[in-house]
Structures are given as structure tokens and as C-alpha cells.
Inverse folding.
């Protein structure tokens, strides 16, 4: 039989349907849910009558099907939107709840921590520790830090892994921020550790007695500091110089807190904080002897930022403090710790200066460097008396004036092991300075190599005012010139510039621009300069801290590039400049 034969199965079925139409009259449309009743004329293409009834019927069916499908699509679209909305709301709630839980568990740093980016910064630190095989879950809470230390990097089984939980302290918090140094392309992860200020309140100590109690209190504080530093040591030691972590511990150590006798003596001596003055300075390893001499000559409050670049240096510094407790009773130490080896030649003096200056506890301050000694002896007491007894001095300080001190180079090399605070080679009085300058033993600091650094002092005028009985000449005004960088006295209570003292530009490191950029900003901000009559400083000669000349030139070139950022900050703070000082900066920074 052929495919289209009348007796073929296909045609037989068709014929059977034509003979029994009732078997397929009631059909349900599965797409629309409509029940459609077909007549025999619906079969085939228009039926046998040729009237088009079959075609008309199909149009009606198509209309109902289209209408039903459109309605269902709209219903499905609405339903889908509702489901998506509900899903989004539920997911958001769980996300916010989870984020809130994480913040409560890990990162409640307190009011000093309000940058959301810092949250992820700290999580990255923990992840880096885990990548090194040390799982340290650090729970940051307002009431302290809980450290989980699980050493799983040695391949030992979980049954032999030592797990310990210890509460480091109850009243401290860690905060973090990311700082971008665009002139070096470095992202700094700066973590600040704030420790409670403790002392030994139990027993009154008499001078020279119970030194073992003093030692116990100091050593407990040192152990506390080390325990915090070691939380980050594996991370810091593994980093390169492109994304280093820095630890900052302000007010870390104050020896007077562990000696009741000297603390009460110091409080009585400086109880009138209104006229008290703190020296601010900074130092690294190898400067400890000179720092001790500086403190002894100053004989007053000192705020010093110490850079430490390894655990060995930390131990060396703590040994120095422990061995010189009595000499350092007036000192507050702030720690600045960076371990990245690629930055060892770039000393961050401006970050250290800002750290020391920010945390002074008196109304007045002196900006100084660790190699710069002050005269006369007991400089603090004499300066404080001058501020107290001369109303015009503290009025000018509190308004818009900084007071500069002349600086001399002492042309005598004294080894550190021979240094004492009252060495016979030191100029002790203004009369000594006058005589030693005349004989060439001392001279204006860097008068030949860097004359603009201090010549605005007007040394001729300073030497001419010898009579301390002339109250009208206790100071005299001077004009700033570019690259002027004296050591000065200032006030936290200044009213000028909205009550704000500019910070040192923090991205200068090593040689060049670091200090005189600050005095340039003082000039741009409209501050004034005067010179005090009866005080001066001198530089105790030492070997260069910057290495060979090529290293110094490289540091200077980098700082020259960094100066572009400094100049942008000046315009941002004080507006576009049109003066000789600005033109000089433009020539020096953009000369290439």
C-alpha cells in the first residue's frame, strides 16, 4: 500500500474521525483553560460547504487563546516582581544583620574608628595572618582584645594543636586607617594601639627606695606593649615596602608613672600648666645617649616619638629605658613601628614630629631634634619663667607668633661614650656663645652649606642685645625667608588660623624639605616670627644619618617630587598664592 493510499493508516484514521465526530467534539485548550466545542464543519480547511465557517471559528479560538495568554503573562510578571522584591528585602535584612553581627564581634573600635574601609582593612590583616599558617582571630571590642592563637602551620594534627585564649587587656582598643603616599605609590596600613595610662598607686615611695617596685611596674608595662606588638609581627615581617603595616602606640611609656616620688615632685613643679612647656622631638636606634643628654639639659616635660623597625630594636629600646628610669621621668614615649626593609633609608621624621606634637600635655611646646641641645642649662625652667613673667610673650604665643631660637654648630666632635649633659665644651650662656663664636669654636648652623636655613635670625642683632635688664628687648621680630628652618616655641592655644597649628607634611621622608616646608606653611597661614633674646640651641656634631651622598641625593629627589602634593595642600587650605615665597617654591619643585 502506498503512503497516500485510501486504505493507509493515516487516511483510515481521518475517515474514522469523519464518521464519528462526537468522539472529539469536547476538547479542552491546555493553554487557556477554555472548553471549545467543535462541529463537523470545523474539520479540515473550511469544511465541505465552502462558506468559511471553519475559518471564522478558528479566528474566535485564536482570539480567546491570545487574550488568555496575555493575561497569564501579566499575572506571571507581577508575581515575579513580587517574588524578587520579597527576596531582595529578606536578603538585605540577613545581610545587614550579618554585618551588624560582624561589627559587634570583630570591629567595635570606639569613636576613633569611623571609616568603613578600615573594617575590610582589618579583615585583610587577619586573612594575611591565616595565609602564613597562623590563625589569629582578633576580637576587637570596646572592653579589650581577645586573642585566639592557633598554630596550625607546623603540620601537626588537631589533637596536638595548642589552643589558648588569653585576655590581653580590658581597657584598650585598636583602630586602623589606610594612608596613600602618592609620591611613592605606597598604601600604608596604620594601626593605632591605645593603651590605658597606668601607675603604681599602692605605696608611696621615697626617693631612692623600693626601686624593685618601680622596676616591676615598668616591666609589666613593657610586657604589655610587647604582647600587643607581637599580634602583628608575623604580618609586618613578611611585607615588602609597597603595602606596609605601621603600628602607632601613643603615650606608650611614661617612666614617672612607676615612681610615686618623682611623679608627685614633677606635678608640684609643673602644677601651673597654663605656662608649662613640653619639648617635642623624635629619634631612632643609636640616638639614645644623645637623647638622655638632651633631656637632662632641658629638665622638663618631653614628648618623643621613637621609630622601631624590629623586635630586636624594641628590646634594645626597652633596655635603655629600664636602665635610665630616673633620668627619663619627665618623658612620654610614643612608638612608631614599621618593619618594611625597603624603607630603612627613608626616616619618617615628619610623621614622628606630628606624633610627638599631637600628644603633648601642656599648653606650650618646643619643636626640636634629638641632636640639638638647648642652652642655658635647665632650659625648661628658665623658659617657663620667661613666659610667666612677660605678659607680651604668652599673649603673642596665644595669638599668632612663634618664637625662634638661634642655632649654632659646635665644631668639636665628642664621642657618645664621652658625652655628659654639662660637658666643658658646651656653650652654657649667651656670653659663652658670644666668645666661642668670635673664636670660631661655634658658628651659625650650616652658614656656608645652607645659609638660608637660619640667617633670618639676624645673629648680629641677637649678639648685640646682651643686657637682660632691658625688658623691652626680650624678643625682636624677624621676616621669614624660604628654606628658613629654626627651632621654635609655640602654643596650642593659638587663636590665629582658626585655632589650628599646621601639621608637618607627612610624606617627606629623609633629607630635604621636611622642616622648612612647615615654616613655609606658617608663612602662608599668616603666622609671625620673633627671636627670644636669652636662649639658643647648638648642634652636637655627629656622623651623617643619611649615608653616602648618592643616597642623600636620591632622598632629596623623591622629596622634591613629593613637594607637588604639599603645594596642592597649600592651595587647598589657603587659596591660590601670588607672592615671592610661592614663586620660589615653584622654581625649586618644577625646575625640571
Amino acid at each position: 500500500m502506498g503512503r497516500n493510499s485510501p486504505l493507509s493508516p493515516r487516511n483510515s484514521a481521518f475517515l474514522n474521525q469523519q464518521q464519528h465526530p462526537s468522539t472529539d467534539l469536547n476538547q479542552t485548550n491546555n493553554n487557556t483553560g477554555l472548553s471549545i466545542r467543535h462541529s463537523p464543519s470545523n474539520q479540515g480547511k473550511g469544511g465541505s460547504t465552502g462558506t468559511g465557517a471553519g475559518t471564522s471559528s478558528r479566528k474566535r479560538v485564536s482570539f480567546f487563546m491570545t487574550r488568555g495568554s496575555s493575561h497569564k503573562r501579566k499575572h506571571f510578571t507581577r508575581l515575579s516582581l513580587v517574588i524578587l522584591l520579597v527576596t531582595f528585602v529578606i536578603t538585605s535584612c540577613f545581610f545587614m544583620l550579618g554585618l551588624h553581627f560582624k561589627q559587634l564581634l570583630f570591629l567595635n573600635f570606639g569613636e576613633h574608628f569611623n571609616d568603613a574601609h578600615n573594617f575590610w582593612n582589618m579583615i585583610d590583616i587577619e586573612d594575611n595572618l591565616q595565609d602564613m599558617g597562623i590563625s589569629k582571630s582578633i576580637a576587637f571590642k570596646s572592653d579589650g582584645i581577645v586573642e585566639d592563637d592557633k598554630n596550625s602551620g607546623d603540620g601537626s594534627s588537631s589533637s596536638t594543636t595548642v589552643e589558648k585564649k588569653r585576655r590581653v587587656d580590658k581597657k584598650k582598643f585598636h583602630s586602623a586607617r589606610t594612608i596613600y603616599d602618592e609620591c611613592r605609590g605606597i598604601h600604608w596600613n596604620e594601626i593605632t594601639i591605645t593603651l590605658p595610662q597606668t601607675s603604681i598607686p599602692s605605696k608611696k615611695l621615697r626617693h631612692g627606695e623600693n626601686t624593685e617596685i618601680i622596676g616591676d611596674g615598668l616591666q609589666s608595662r613593657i610586657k604589655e606593649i610587647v604582647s600587643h606588638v607581637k599580634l602583628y609581627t608575623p604580618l609586618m615581617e613578611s611585607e615588602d615596602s609597597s603595602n606596609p603595616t605601621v603600628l602607632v602606640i601613643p603615650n606608650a611609656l611614661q617612666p614617672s608613672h612607676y615612681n610615686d616620688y618623682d611623679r608627685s615632685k614633677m606635678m608640684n613643679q609643673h602644677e601651673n600648666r597654663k605656662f608649662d612647656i613640653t619639648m617635642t622631638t623624635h629619634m631612632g636606634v643609636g640616638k639614645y645617649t644623645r637623647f638622655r643628654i638632651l633631656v637632662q639639659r632641658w629638665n622638663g616635660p618631653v614628648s618623643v616619638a621613637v621609630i622601631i623597625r624590629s623586635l630586636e630594636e624594641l628590646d634594645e629600646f626597652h633596655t635603655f629605658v629600664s636602665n635610665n628610669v630616673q633620668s627619663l621621668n619627665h618623658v612620654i614615649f610614643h612608638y612608631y613601628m614599621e618593619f618594611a626593609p625597603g624603607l630603612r633609608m627613608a626616616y619618617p621624621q615628619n610623621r614622628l614630629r606630628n606624633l610627638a606634637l599631637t600628644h603633648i600635655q601642656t599648653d606650650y611646646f618646643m619643636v626640636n631634634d634629638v641632636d640639638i641641645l638647648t642652652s642655658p642649662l635647665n632650659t625648661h625652667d628658665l623658659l617657663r619663667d620667661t613666659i610667666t613673667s612677660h605678659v607680651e610673650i604668652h599673649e603673642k604665643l596665644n595669638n599668632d607668633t612663634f618664637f625662634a631660637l638661634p642655632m649654632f654648630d659646635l665644631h668639636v666632635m665628642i664621642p657618645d661614650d664621652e658625652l655628659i649633659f654639662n660637658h666643658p665644651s658646651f656653650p652654657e650662656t649667651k656670653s659663652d656663645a658670644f666668645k666661642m663664636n668670635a673664636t670660631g669654636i661655634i658658628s651659625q648652623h650650616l652658614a656656608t652649606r645652607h645659609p638660608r636655613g637660619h640667617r633670618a635670625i639676624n645673629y648680629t642683632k641677637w649678639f648685640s642685645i646682651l643686657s637682660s635688664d632691658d625688658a623691652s628687648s626680650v624678643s625682636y621680630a624677624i621676616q621669614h625667608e624660604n628654606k628658613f628652618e629654626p627651632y621654635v616655641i609655640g602654643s596650642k592655644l593659638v587663636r590665629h588660623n582658626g585655632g589650628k597649628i599646621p601639621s608637618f607634611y607627612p610624606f617627606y621622608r629623609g633629607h630635604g624639605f621636611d622642616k622648612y616646608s612647615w615654616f613655609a606653611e606658617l608663612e602662608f597661614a599668616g603666622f609671625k616670627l620673633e627671636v627670644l633674646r636669652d636662649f639658643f640651641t647648638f648642634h652636637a656634631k655627629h656622623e651623617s644619618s643619611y649615608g653616602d651622598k648618592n643616597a642623600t641625593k636620591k632622598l632629596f629627589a623623591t622629596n622634591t617630587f613629593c613637594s607637588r602634593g604639599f603645594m596642592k595642600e597649600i592651595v587647598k587650605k589657603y587659596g591660590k598664592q601670588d607672592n615671592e615665597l610661592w614663586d620660589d617654591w615653584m622654581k625649586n619643585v618644577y625646575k625640571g
Summary: DSSP finds 16 helices and 20 strands in the chain.
